[in-house]
């Protein structure tokens, strides 16, 4: 009987060990190398859980006021590039909350912060906006598109987003389908820090967040 009890304790101990490669963080702390900025001064990092389960797989649980951007300062885009990530919303929210990518980040901890962002939400709509300091400018307001997977009747939903910045145009892509093409000259904040934007009340998994300098990629020259 004593041997069985000892074996049970060992097994329970092994189950409690972290998965290999996992960086587990409780609320109130960001993974090493990451920075963030809330939209609202009343938000608290204590209401955010951000775990890295491997080198390119992130898990977010975000509180009721904690809409924010997340980024690594050294991740900067310039010239022609493609930024992408795959988002899985793990839980429906009472009000559609948005998530997605941003590019062209400048002075992200200062009053004159700026960036361009591309978001989707659970009702199958996408949005493109620019931030300049405290102000935001809508480029494309919330628009329905069949390329955006909606959560309707599902327990979770996955959407792959991409911002493909060419010499003359920027393409905004969802699940491999171009939902919008805009002249690069019409947009500010195209080059700079790239990152993730995640609104409040969301439980998300994010994977394959990366960018590709596309100067050597032939497809960049078609737009």
Unreliable parts = 5-24
Q: Output the radius of gyration.
A: 19 Å
Total strands: 14
CATH class: Mainly Beta
Structural class: mainly beta
Major β-sheet annotation: 7 strands, antiparallel
Please state the overall shape, judged from the principal axes of the Cα atoms.
globular
Mean pLDDT: 87
CATH homologous superfamily caption: Exo-inulinase, domain 1
The amount of helix comes to under 10%
Give the SSE order as H and E letters: HEEEEEEEEEEEEEE
CATH topology: Jelly Rolls
What count of domains describes the coordinates? 1
- Distance linking N and C termini: 72 Å
Would you mind describing this structure in some detail?
There is one protein chain. The protein has 223 residues and is mostly beta strands. The chain has a single domain (23-222), classed as Exo-inulinase, domain 1 (Jelly Rolls). It has one helix and 14 strands; from the N terminus they run αββββββββββββββ. A seven-stranded antiparallel sheet has the order 1-4-13-6-7-8-9, with no helix packed on it. The chain has a seven-stranded antiparallel sheet with strand order 2-3-14-5-10-11-12, with no helix packed on it. A hairpin with a 2-residue loop joins β11 (169-174) and β12 (177-183). The longest helix has 14 residues, at 2-15. The model is unreliable at 5-24 (pLDDT under 50).
Record the SSE blueprint.
Elements: H1 2-15, E1 35-38, E2 48-54, E3 57-62, E4 68-77, E5 81-89, E6 98-106, E7 114-121, E8 125-132, E9 135-144, E10 157-165, E11 169-174, E12 177-183, E13 192-198, E14 203-213
Antiparallel strand pairs: 1-4, 2-3, 3-14, 4-13, 5-10, 5-14, 6-7, 6-13, 7-8, 8-9, 10-11, 11-12
């Amino acid at each position: 009987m004593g041997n069985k009890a000892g074996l049970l304790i060992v097994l329970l101990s092994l189950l409690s060990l972290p998965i290999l490669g996992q960086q587990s963080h409780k609320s109130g702390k960001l993974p090493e190398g990451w920075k963030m900025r809330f939209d609202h001064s009343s938000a608290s990092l204590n209401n955010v859980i951000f775990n890295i389960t491997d080198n390119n797989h992130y898990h977010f649980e975000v509180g009721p006021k904690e809409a924010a951007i997340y980024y690594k300062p050294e991740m900067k885009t310039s010239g022609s590039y493609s930024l992408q990530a795959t988002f899985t919303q793990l839980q429906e929210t009472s009000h559609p909350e948005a998530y997605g990518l941003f590019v062209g980040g400048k002075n992200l901890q200062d009053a004159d912060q700026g960036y361009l962002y591309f978001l989707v939400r659970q009702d199958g709509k996408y949005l493109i906006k620019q931030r300049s300091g405290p102000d935001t400018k809508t480029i494309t307001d919330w628009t329905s598109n069949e390329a955006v997977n909606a959560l309707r009747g599902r327990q979770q939903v996955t959407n792959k987003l991409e911002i493909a910045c060419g010499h003359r145009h920027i393409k905004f892509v969802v699940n491999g389908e171009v939902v919008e093409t805009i002249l690069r000259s019409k947009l500010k904040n195209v080059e700079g820090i790239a990152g993730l934007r995640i609104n409040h009340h969301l439980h998300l998994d994010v994977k394959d967040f990366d960018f590709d300098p596309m100067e050597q990629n032939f497809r960049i020259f078609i737009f």
